[in-house]
């Protein structure tokens, strides 16, 4: 426990330094439509830390310490502001408004009383269109704070933002609260998607989740789509979007924006 605590203190110092000296870098991963209901590409914005020698540090290394020491609101605010800024800058040379940009929100940030005001101030500062952005929250966070989550979502949806419910199936897995949460997309947990080809029971679960979501008016996104066999399975089920290494690996957001300018994007068949 002492060794783990020392490691966490190290990461806290690194996080604080990264926040103060722009030691973070934004990445993005494509989310591709795989049915005929939509032709709009989505991009999930991801966070990486840069070491002193330029080495890229994945979030699994530093986010546990950030959560333990309640630094997630500061990190989320950094991600939101810098995402808005980079995409607004790119709008001068690329049609970024033709895509949906997804930003993750932690449970700690959802409980911040002034987060809505901060987001609204960033909207004015960078002159962004809220309709281009989707905030992503995990199923567990939303259900454990159902009243606050619903209030928060409704405030931002009134401004034009969208919402996705992430990791569906990994937590309480109750369909009942979908009637009250104002979400637009439901992301099916990757643990189901990875086993969908060889396990009929897993396939039945995914079909049920997709069917209920479609009746509710939600579009579905399959996570951890890693190969053509999985793509074929989720297409047959009727899932709307796919995300994973079988579609596209995460790349720096700056590179992604440049690809949009050069029109280098392609769909995986």
Structural features, described:
The chain has helices at 2-21, 59-68, 72-90, 107-110, 115-126, 139-144, 146-159, 190-194, 200-216, 228-237, 253-262; strands at residues 24-33, 42-50, 56-57, 100-104, 133-138, 162-168, 185-188, 219-222, 241-242, 251-252. It has 269 residues and is of the alpha/beta class. The protein has an eight-stranded mixed beta barrel, surrounded by five helices. β8, α10 (228-237) and β9 (241-242) form a beta-alpha-beta unit. α1 packs across α2 (59-68) and α3 runs parallel beside α5 (115-126). The protein is globular. The N and C termini lie far apart (48 Å).
Give helix % range: 40-55%
**First and last CA, distance:** 48 Å
Strand content: 15-25%
Strand count, sense and closure of the main sheet?
Answer: 8 strands, mixed, barrel
Low-confidence stretches: none
Number of H- or I-type helical stretches = 11
Mean pLDDT across residues? 90
- Please tell me what the overall shape is: globular
- Helix-strand sequence: HEEEHHEHHEHHEEHHEHEEH
> What class, by secondary structure content?
alpha/beta
Assembly level? single chain
| Strands side by side in the biggest sheet | 1-2-4-5-6-7-8-9
Estimated radius of gyration: 18 Å
Q: What is the number of beta strands?
A: 10
């Amino acid at each position: 426990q002492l060794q783990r605590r020392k490691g966490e203190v190290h990461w806290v110092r690194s996080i604080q330094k990264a926040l103060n000296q722009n030691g973070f870098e934004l990445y993005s991963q494509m989310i591709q439509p795989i049915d005929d209901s939509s032709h709009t590409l989505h991009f999930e914005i991801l966070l990486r830390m840069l070491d002193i020698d330029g080495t890229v540090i994945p979030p699994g290394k530093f986010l546990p310490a950030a959560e333990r020491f309640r630094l997630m609101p500061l990190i989320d605010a950094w991600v939101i502001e810098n995402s808005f800024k980079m995409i607004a800058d790119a709008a001068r040379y690329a049609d970024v408004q033709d895509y949906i940009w997804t930003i993750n929100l932690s449970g700690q940030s959802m409980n911040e009383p002034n987060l809505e005001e901060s987001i609204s101030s960033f909207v004015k500062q960078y002159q962004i269109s809220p309709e281009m952005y989707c905030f992503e929250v995990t199923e567990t966070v939303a259900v454990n704070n159902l009243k606050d989550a619903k209030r928060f979502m409704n405030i931002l949806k009134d401004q034009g933002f969208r919402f996705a419910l992430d990791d569906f199936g990994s937590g309480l897995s109750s369909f009942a609260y979908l009637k009250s949460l104002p979400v637009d997309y439901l992301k099916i947990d990757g643990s189901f998607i990875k086993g969908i080809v060889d396990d009929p029971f897993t396939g039945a679960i995914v079909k049920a989740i997709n069917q209920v979501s479609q009746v509710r008016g939600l579009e579905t996104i399959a996570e951890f789509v890693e190969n053509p066999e999985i793509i074929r399975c989720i297409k047959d089920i009727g899932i709307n979007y796919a995300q994973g290494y079988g579609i596209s690996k995460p790349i720096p957001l700056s590179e992604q924006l440049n690809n949009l300018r050069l029109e280098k994007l392609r769909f995986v068949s």
